[in-house]
Amino acid sequence: MQISNYKPILLLLLALLGLGATTATSASASSSWFVAKTAVESGATVGIDPTGRTVEPYVLDVAEVTITCSDFTPGEAQITGPSEFEIGAPSFSGCSASPEGCEVPSTIGGHGSITPSWIDFPVRTKGGVILEMESAEEAHTMIALHLAGECPLSGEQHITGHLSVELPDGQTEAESHEFSLNSNEGLTLGESPVTLSGSGVMKLASGKPWSYR
């Protein structure tokens, strides 16, 4: 066979190698938080507004107990350049429990509780951002709550594991971003699965537009 007959094959191989190099370069490109179109420098911190607006109530299902809370507060939340996100002393408020007779404090978490900081590095999705938040403490407690009254469980309970904070439009610079909390089968109480859902709106303390890209 003449060398010229191999030319189409060689061209195809070169094209595939070029595509692979481009893909590798894109995958290895560094990502960063941006505030007002400026990348947050390494080690610099930007505060998140400790208040928030609820879109969908937060519902926690644990061991035949359903806890519904009207609000979620990120507490001492901040982003740290270039790509870290931390929610410090998060709390849920306006909480009630079912079945009837089961009692839970109106506020879960916050300062003075065992509920720790949640921390993670973002992962970009198609247009959005997902943070698989984990506990910053060795015991891996994500949520600590106290149940009393006629509950299937009683006393202090420690929920461990990890949960997702999803910002569907996180790659688009905006003053506020809607987010959702989702357990994605990552939370447990002992060996029992725990589900968490709910959504709200988060913004920077400065009110400036921000994104992750």
From the spread of the alpha carbons, the general shape counts as elongated
Number of helices: 1
**What is the rounded Rg?**
22 Å
Low-pLDDT ranges:
6-28
Overall pLDDT confidence: 82
| First and last CA, distance | 51 Å
- The sequence of SSEs as H and E is HEEEEEEEEEEEEEEEEEEE
Helix residue percentage: 10-25%
Structural class, judged by helices and strands? mainly beta
Task: Give a structural overview.
With 213 residues, the chain is mostly beta strands. It contains 1 helix and 19 strands. It has one helix at residues 7-28, and strands at 33-35, 38-39, 45-47, 53-62, 65-73, 78-80, 84-87, 91-98, 102-103, 107-109, 118-120, 123-124, 129-135, 141-149, 155-167, 176-182, 187-189, 192-203, 210-212. The strands form 2 sheets. The chain has a 16-stranded antiparallel β-sheet that branches. The chain has a 3-stranded antiparallel β-sheet with strand order 2-1-19, with no helix packed on it. Strand 1 (33-35) and strand 2 form a beta hairpin. The longest helix has 22 residues, at 7-28. It is elongated. Mean pLDDT is 82; it is low at 6-28.
